[in-house]
Amino acid sequence: MYKLLLCLCYLRTRYLAFVCVVSVFLGVATLIVVNSVMSGFSTKMKSHMHGLSSDITLRTDNAAGFTYRTADIERALRESSVGGHITAMAPTVEVYALLQFQVQVQGQPQTITRHVKMIGIDPAKQCEIGKYGDYLTGKDRPATDCFELTQAARERFNERRRWDLESDLQVDADNRAQPQAARPPAGMNELGVPIPQLGARPGELPAPTIDPGPPIRLTPVNRLPGIVLGYAIAHYRDRDPRTGEMVDRALLKPGDDIFVATVGASGSKPVSSNFIVTEFFKSEMTEYDANVVFVPLDELQRLRGMDDRVNTIQIRLGDDIRSRVDAVHSTILPVIQDMFPRGTCQASSWWQQQGPIFAAIDIERGLLNILLFLIIGVAGFGVLAIFSMIVSEKIRDIGILKSLGASNMGVMGIFIAYGVLLGIIGCGIGTLLGLSITYNINAIEQFISKNIIGREVFDRKIYYFDSIPTNVEWATVLLVNAGALGIALVSSVLPAWRAARLQPVRALRFE
Question: Which of 175, 331, 468, 477 is spaced 20 to 30 Å from 230 by Cα?
Fold first, then answer.
C-alpha cells in the first residue's frame, strides 16, 4: 500500500514528471491519428479498386478479341473444375481511344482532346460483377438505364442541335451577303474561252439530274449511342470567389455530344463515331474518373467490327473464397489460365493488378510508424532522466524506508510503479486526444485551411475524395498503448535499480 501512496505523492509534488506525460500522450496521439488516416486511405482505395475490378480478369491482347465465341468461353468456365466458385461473368471490350468535344471559353469555342480508356459493357452484367451502379451520379434511375437519355438531356441535345443549325445558316447567309466577284458568262471559263459541251452518245441515258434532297433536319436523338463519362473528364474543380470553397464546374452535361476515335478490330484502320453523354461515373479515384468512359457493348463491337467477340471476361467469385487471396491464387487462377493459351490470354486477380499500390502504402505506413515511434522513445529518455533526478533527490527518503524494513524489491517497485503510472496517464490522455482528432479531422482540416494557412491542407483534386477517410483499428490502438507503456517501464528500470542498491547507512550518513 505504501508503494501506491508514495507514487501518488511523487506525482502530485514532482511537476517535472508531467513532461514525461506530455511526451507520451503526444506520441500516442500522433501514432493513432497517422495510422487511422493511412488505414482509411488504404481501406477506401481497396474498396474502390475492388469495386471497379472483378475478382479475376481474363484478357487477350489480340485487337480482334478472343478467337472463341463469348458464349463458348462462358460455358467452358462454368463447366470447369472451378465453375462452382464462379457467381457472375461480364464480357467487355476495352480499348484506348481519343475523345474530342467543344467547350466555350470566354465566348470562343475551343476543342478539347483527351486520351481515354473506352470500355464496352452490358450494364446489367457489370453491376453483378462490382459496384458499377454505386458510382453513377444518377441515383434516381436504375443503373441498367445508364445509356438512356433523361427528358432534360433530350431537350438539351435538341436545343444544342437547333442552335448549331441556326449558326450554320447564319454563316451561309453572311457569305451570300458579301459581294461576289464577277462571274464569266454561261459556257465560258475565266479567260473567256468557250467550255466544250459533251452531249450524250447515241443509246446513252442522259446525265442524271442532282436531287437536292429533303430539307436539313435535326439529327434524331435516338440515332446516337449513349456514353458514360468519368466525372473528372467532364468536370474540373475551381474555387468559388464568393464562398472561397472548392466547387465542381461542368464542362459537359447530359445531352452534349462528343466525338470518339479508336482503332478497329483489324488493328490498322481507325474508326470513329459520335456519342451523346447520358451519365457520369464518379468513383472518387482520379485514375478512373479522369481516364475511363463506358459505352454499350454491342455498339463498340459494331464500331470496331468485332461481331460478337470481346477481349476481356470479368469474373466474380463466391463470397466463400473471394476474400481468401492465397486460395484464389493457388486454386482458381491456375485452372483458368490453363484453359487458354498463355501467349495471348492472361488471367489475373484484382490483387495482382493493384498489389504494388497496396504494398507501397503498407511500406510507407510501416516506415512512418517507426519514425513516429521515436517520439515515444524520446519520452522514454525523459522518463530516465527525470527518474534519475528524483532518485538523487530522494536518497534520504530511500534510506528511511530501508531502515524501517523496506526491501530492495519494494524500493525498486516504487519507482517502477511510478513510471508505469506516468505511462498509463500519458497513454490514456493520448488515446482520447488521438481518437478525438481522428473523428473530427475533417472539421479540424477545414478550420486550419480557412483560418490559419488560407489554403487546403487536404487537396481534393488528388483523389476527388469528399473528405479525409479514416479507419480506427483497435488492434493498432492497443499495440501503440502497449508499446508506450513498455517504453515507460523499461526507462524506469535503471533508476529503480539504482535506488534499490542504495544502502541505508550511506543514505543517512550526512543527516
Answer: 468
